[in-house]
Structures
1.
Amino acid sequence: MKNYRVLAITDRSDLPETELFIRLKNIGVDIEVACNPTGRYHPRLEKSGIIFYPLFLKTRFSPAGMREIREILDRKMYDIIYCFNNHATSNLILSRAGRTAKVVTYRGTVGNINFFSPASWTTHLNPRVNRIICVSRAVRDHLNAMQWMGIKFSSGRAVAIYKGHDLAWYQDAPTDLSEFGISKTDFVVCFAGRDRPHKGAHVIVESARFLPKDLPVHFILMGKISENRKLIRQISESPLRHRIHLPGFRNDAPAVIAAGDVFVMPSTKREGLSRAVIEAMCYGIPPIVTDVGGLPELVTDKESGLVIPPGDPRALARAIVDLYENPETRNRLGKNARIRIDRHFNINTTVEQTRKVFEDLMAEKNHPI
């Protein structure tokens, strides 16, 4: 395979993304990165020796950002441009820069793309996009099923590559939960997610109504949902309101999760592949997830966690009680969860599959659409 040069355009890279860049470089891929240098893991990228360009993209249409992208692409020729978010893709497409390069985009969510949306045509639907790397099969299959008036995705344009992790990244000591008034004999159910209705935090709160009154359970719901007035009002009306904690955004969220007994992600729709669930599994915390998007790809029901129907607080309550009453099952699921991440969601597999996408693209003579 002829040598090729890749430019990745992103924002503040998380750890799996940063490690993807570093490990691609380590296996011989000539990759450079344009990114926001204020990211938590940017020092890791700098230390690796990868050439990077500071880039700040605040909107999908940023004249300053487009100018910076053009300046980067004027310095040297790239064979592949990998855009990790909509801001990166739109600004690249609208700047009309790097016209000879193959374009790859990343998609981490099911839905919210359609043929009637002008914004979609400046990102994944744009004819310049050669490949869409999807975080799960559910995301890929949703894209492949889209069609309108004879317009549809060409075969092979969307591919599924799991966002890989490494168990060695997750070594934080469990947080002391006494700050929440939680004792070591209490049963702790954790959640971490964005303040979006489809994440299902309201389902967790509602499930408390169906739990036995003598169950020594506490809920820790992390994220900016602590600012959601509707959710706060719902909690105030709950019989367990004094045992539902909203600590807000926590930098130590994985350590808090590691201190819990169960992690729940009761998404109602649009779930790609939850990073919070993966982090819980890496710490051996058994997850309860809904049969939505990529979650059932991540969690094998009754083997590495429990999978329940979406929008069903009674089912969630039953699952919580089941894991409370069966510590042996809980331990088995937690151990299997770690094994599943290590075997099926490993960063090294992600690196190899991404490299193959690049090499397949370089072997193509014509645009696949």
2.
Amino acid sequence: MSERRERTILAAVVFAVLLSQVLLYPGIDTLVRALGAGFILDASMWFLAAEFAAFVAFAGVWGAVSDATGRRVPLVVGGALTGSALYAVLAVAPGVTGISFGTVLLIRALQGAATIAAFSLSMTMLMDLPGGHGKNMGAAGIAIGGGTALGAPLGGQLYGFGPLVPLYAASALLVVVALLAALVPERTTVGDGGRLRRAAARLGETPELSIPYAFGFVDRLTAGFFALVGTLYFRTQFELSPGETGLVLALFFAPFALLQYPFGVLSDRVGRTGPIVAGSSLYGLAVVGVGLAPSIELAGAGMVLVGVIGALMAPATMALVTDIAGERERGTAMAGFNAAGSLGFLAGILVGGFVAGEYGYFAAFLVAGGGELALALVALPRLLRLELPTETQPTE
């Protein structure tokens, strides 16, 4: 199989995993109500947080297992099929007598633990490909952005057919993920050590990885913030339906998707530092600008700007992981990056949800944007001092 075809299939896998995940966001309040929740803001927060807490806990585990065994494909296929089954269990949960919302959250956490294997390791398989780290991570980025861009409006429309329909759609998509992943050959080399503790030890052995991890945390914090607080803000402040909310979220995700690949290629040519520095300098300000917008039109324009800036940063940040990590430890390194990103997403949900509940939506936007600025300022000096290797880009 050619490298181009492998890259396309793996990007499709990443796309489908993200699509299944984001389908649930535009009407998350109606979903948790159908699943038996009480207070909607808190229930929505914990339903999203349960999945991402599992992402944080298990991303490193799956990465270490894949490095130790030299096998990624079976873990992607198994994770996707298990996640599919658990999405289906969530969809039928309201019909089961006596099931509590706490049990729903446990099932959601198990689904997250399985799904992160498919997501993190398919991205790692893209890292394993030759052809330029920026190009490969650009393909991952456009898949991530494309899945989220399509998932928001599509999920909003699916909620029109019923609050549980997005769960059934997510289950079906993960079956497709398993079928696609099974087509890809293994390129993995068995890593050194082969123990689960490698996931935790990797950062200590290569402290330079803390730089892309910090920026990955910042980038995903905003995504988590908009998944919960942004969704409920648009629904209440501007009285939007789930379908309309999905379209507003897509104003961020569409440019984020479309610009990932060209910005990834750009980072191969000009280096990682410029795109990351430029993006991080503006990202938090753009987030605060969305919260200040007095109309849905201006808020939508702000979402587009956030998407463009995010697209500039994301592929360069992921490629930086590949630049720094050794070839035999990419699974663990990318798992660490995904764990940091998932922790950021989780922080965006929990901190944003808490602040919005206690102090209002604008305070939550201010904390999210200001937090990104603060983290970026802390990490920027180390990034500027980092010496990166120069890649020679092959042609296909």
3.
Amino acid sequence: MISSIPVREYGLVFATAVAVTYLVTGVVRLFATRIGAFSPIRERDVHSVPTPRMGGVAVYLGVGAAVLMGYNLPALSEAFRNNTEILGVLVAGGVICFVGAIDDRFDLSAVTKLAGQVLAAGLLVLFGVQWVLLRLPTGSDGDVGNIYVLGRDQAVILTVLLAVLLTNAMNFIDGLDGLLAGVAFISAIAAFAFSLYVLYDSGNNGLAQPPLIAAALAGACLGFLPHNFFPAKIFMGDSGSMFIGVTMAAAITSTAGKIDPLALGTRSSIALLAPLIVALAVVFIPLLDFFLAVVRRTSAGKSPMSADKKHLHHRMLQIGHTHRQAVLIFYLWALVFAGGAVSLGFFNWQFVIGPWLAATLVALGLSFTPWLRALRLGRLRRRDHRAAQQSADT
């Protein structure tokens, strides 16, 4: 039974990830520059200066150092006892980071990268990271609903699909300086908050791994951000985007896929969906961009993995936002969706819906401000033009 949350220990894990990633990124940047791991200037890119990539190696090392710190803290030792999920994250993450680093240097084919993603997802499964429970609310408020225990084959397929989906979704939004690192940081903080709530409320020591994974990932992303925010000195590269996707999938699966609603004392039927909602919300932006790109490309008769310049972040630039403004607005959207979803674990939905709708309206207003301003200026110009024509006619 969990009597208290080791806040200082989790803070130390987080701080270790921040410090190590920040310091190591400079070394990785020099290494990437020396071996020629530069991001080429392509038509779909928004940067105009060749920039080294492979920053995901620094993120992986930061996560690894943070996990090592957690391993040596007595209060967090329960996360490593009789459980191999964290080791699985390091092994699977190391494999996908290596594949991504090779791609950052030599540009692997999409099929090769997909094979690496499936391999990494399979390694997660082998180390015990599996989605084994699904809950659907039925009946009146407070009813625990139906609990579905997935068979081994179903659990494996769902876990692998989720890992591959998140890996590609994270890769899709890595198009602006600081975008992926910031969105992943916010998502990891949301996953940490929810998994910590689940750990404390359920009293199940077997759920001690997800908060540690999420805290380490959040710290690594924050430590990388000063090097990556506009104008970026180094890019994440596929080594970073794919590693973040695999790690986020592991954290979400370890929490949402194993919660017993009876142990949580769920307050309402909609709260039973909180794990699924959190799982979707923390990666809503990359998933949305991913699905829109797939629909857009397949409807045009192109491969879903073909590149274009019509991602959400490209559209934000097209309607008039600066590079930094577009990134900050994506941060806001990540906060709106992830924060609203996590709030369902702490409060009844009736108390969440009002603030969430208000925050959504604010985000919408800020997102479309340049477009609305351009419409207004266009109307003013047309009015002045008509006035000038009428004056000339008279």
